[in-house]
Amino acid sequence: MEPVLQVALDMMQLKRSVGIAQEAVEGGADWIEVGTPLIKSEGTEAVRTMKRTFPGRRIVADTKTMDTGAFEVEIMAKAGADIVTVLGLAEDSTISEAVESGRKYGTEIMVDMINVPDKVRRAKEVEKLGVAYICLHMGIDTQMRGEEAPVDILREIVGAVSVPVAVAGGITADTVPEYINAGAYDIIVGGGITKTDDIRGAAANMKKAMKGLAIDGVVAKKYTEDDLFEAFSKVSTCNISDAYHKKGVIFGLHPYIQRNAKMVGRALTVQTANGDWAKPVEAIDLAKPGDVIVVDVGGGPIAVWGELASNSAMNMGVKGIVIDGAIRDIDDIQNLGFPAFARSAVPCAGEAKGYGGIGVEITVGGQRVRTGDWIIGDESGLIVVPKEEAVEVANRALDVHEHETRTREEIRRGSTLSKVNELSKWEPVK
Fold it and tell me: Are both 4-222 and 237-390 of the same fold?
């Protein structure tokens, strides 16, 4: 069997989903998935609309049924679903009832293995219950930690069952050949298609990659610890704030940077006293290439950093300076192109006394900062991301950025932000 491409519509707005699905089909998508968020927001009407709009495509209702299998399959089947998903974590009786209901109403059952501990064993068990498809699924929240659907497990499942196997979870055009080679029949892609400004092109690229052909580019990559600098460099502080639920924002510091400049790096922390520039300057010698020196002066009004320190830091590969206090030589620093953020700019400097420490936990702009945390700064401001959460926050920020890319394209075509998000429809009931 030739593998099929299933586009997952995981969004709230039905009208918008139809438009995205249309472009995906034009790009080569074979199956259309009415995603769980879309079903929850629009109900069976979402399934009916997709079936009416795309009569030549198989419609997958991603209900993720956990209970009342027969009832939920009947509902989706009558709405036009060709395939309904049931969770592998569900009771055998639930899956059996779903299968029987599907036979009655002409709908097939796909079992989703999300969060199933022993996926190979459970795949064998549910096949015996009569399901038509098995889906190896790495959930979106798991993807945000940089994880992808494991190819080795996919290969084991394909070898253990005779029914077709689907795979979902962070698949991109450059990774899909691995899944095809491992035996996947149904390639399920969401954001890698739906969050792009060229949905036709993204779907066409995916179809090319599924056939082993050369592709034009890759979107929706998920990042790991090894490439966080690249990940954070692709997003704005606004993207990060949205993804991080407004946490980590450093308040009260001003950007003294060139137009469109950006600062990304790991923090090297410094504690010092008002006007005492010894420890900030000593930190330059201890900094690693890619570090951002972050200084807690308690908001003091006498400068502890200037142009000479900036020159030294640049020579050592330091990516920028953050000071909860004062800085000077702003014109020279900006001419250097060295990103600087400070509470104030003044002409006066203090003395090198040596109070404080380097590498200690500090508080800057109301936020705790430790050496090794990620610091991102741009013209909108500053944000700190704890090192333990950096991978997930970076991927979620990229997800925000990708969503905005699609929204921007829809606005460019003549829509408005309110219309794209159907704001009036989704206002709270009063």
Answer: no
The alpha carbon of 207 is separated from its chain's Cα centroid by a whole number of angstroms, namely 23
3-state secondary structure of 11: coil
**CB-based contacts of 16-22 (< 8 A; 24+ apart in sequence):** 16/410, 16/420, 16/422, 17/46, 17/50, 18/49, 18/50, 18/53, 20/194, 20/199, 20/406, 21/50, 21/53, 21/54, 22/53
Question: Tokens at residue 370, please?
Answer: 């430790």
Beta bridge pairs of residue 388: none
Angstrom distance (rounded) from CA 216 to CA 198: 12
Check whether domain 4-222 has CATH 3.40.50.2000, yes or no: no
Three-class SS of residue 98? helix
CATH number of 237-390: 3.50.30.40
Helical residues (DSSP H) of 316-389, grouped into ranges: 330-336
Q: What is the pLDDT tens value at each position of the chain, 430 positions in all?
A: 799 999 999 999 999 999 999 999 999 999 999 999 999 999 999 999 999 999 999 999 999 999 999 999 999 999 999 999 999 999 999 999 999 999 999 999 999 999 999 999 999 999 999 999 999 987 555 555 555 567 889 999 999 999 999 999 878 888 899 999 999 999 999 988 998 889 999 999 999 999 987 666 555 567 788 889 999 999 999 999 999 999 999 999 999 999 999 999 999 999 999 999 999 999 999 999 999 999 999 999 999 999 999 999 999 999 999 999 999 999 999 999 999 999 999 999 999 999 999 999 999 999 999 999 999 999 999 999 999 999 999 989 998 998 898 899 999 999 999 998 888 887 787 7
75 and 107 Cβ atoms separated by less than 8 Å: no
Single-letter residue type at 206? M
Indicate the domain borders of the chain. 4-222, 237-390
Which residues is 135 bridged to in the sheet? 112, 166
DSSP-derived secondary structure letter, 227? G
How far apart, in Å, do the first and last CA atoms of the chain sit? Answer: 52
DSSP 3: -
Closest CA to 159 of 137, 183, 175: 183
CA nearest to 1, candidates 126, 130, 184, 214: 184
Tokens standing for 339? Answer: 């990103």
Q: pTM, whole model, 2 decimals?
A: 0.81
